[in-house]
Amino acid sequence: MAQDSGTRTLISHAQLRRGRGKAIYWTLLTVVVAVFTLVFLGPLYWMVTGALKSGQEIAQTPPTLFPADPQPQNYVDAWNNLDLAKLLFNTFYYATGAVLFQLVLDTAAAYSLSKLRPVFGNAILGLMLATLMIPAMVLIVPQYVTVIDLPILHINLLDSPFAIWLPLVANAFNIFLLKRFFDSIPEDLMAAALVDGATPLRTLWSIILPMSRPILGVVSIFAVTAVWKDFLWPKLVMPSPETRTVSVGIYAFAGGTPMNVVVAASVIAAIPTVVIFLIFQRNIMSGLTTGSLKG
């Protein structure tokens, strides 16, 4: 380890300034960036260009890098034939409900564990985090049995948005993220609010939530993407064509639809989440890192 101007690095700045060390560093950096760029952007490029190809061209082997005869009409056909407007509206509706439920209930749980410190709070948090070790596929059957016959109320939730919203509320990872962020908020603020006569609910609303906008944005984005990309669970609990999400709807129409039109529909379905990420990427990084610094 070398030290220069108070910064410790694996390679000293003096070595990086030398001819050979500088060449090796920039070569490795260029190779790593190029490989990761290809891995992450390659599928997106294939999807966007594939949507512009004809049915024969997209199926040929080896594939072409550029469409020989670009056909933007594929996007129009995908929008009209697959009824993407309805599918996107359904998915947006489910995502909005998931965001609201998670912000209210997960925030309340995290605030209670972080600031109110109930009896056995650490044990409860440990049990919640232990559920993250359970594979999601293992929970499919008990969750489905619960949805078709809700305990106590004996209500069938199939084709109901609550079949998607309720399982998403019990999100141990989001509760843990929120708790870690709340832990970083100084206790002096809580003590000052208590001296002023503020109730725990008033403290949450007036102090905690305004300071927690970054992490609340992260949880919201996680909730939206979870609904948008999920396939198996919406396929099970939303069997009606009128209530399908965009991923299930594209799959249902894929059997009798040309591949290039299906790919065009996939591009359209991916645009909202990509736009959301590009707009809020700073909030994501800020929310994930702020909670790791306490004090």
UniProtKB/TrEMBL annotation:
Residues 88-280 form the ABC transmembrane type-1 domain. It comes from Micromonospora costi. Keywords: Cell membrane, Membrane, Transmembrane, Transmembrane helix, Transport. GO terms for cellular component: plasma membrane. Belongs to the binding-protein-dependent transport system permease family. Signal peptide: none annotated. One of its GO terms (biological process) is transmembrane transport. It comes from the Bacteria. It is a multi-pass membrane protein. SUPFAM superfamilies: MetI-like (SSF161098). The keyword NAD does not apply. It holds the Pfam family BPD_transp_1. This is Carbohydrate ABC transporter permease.
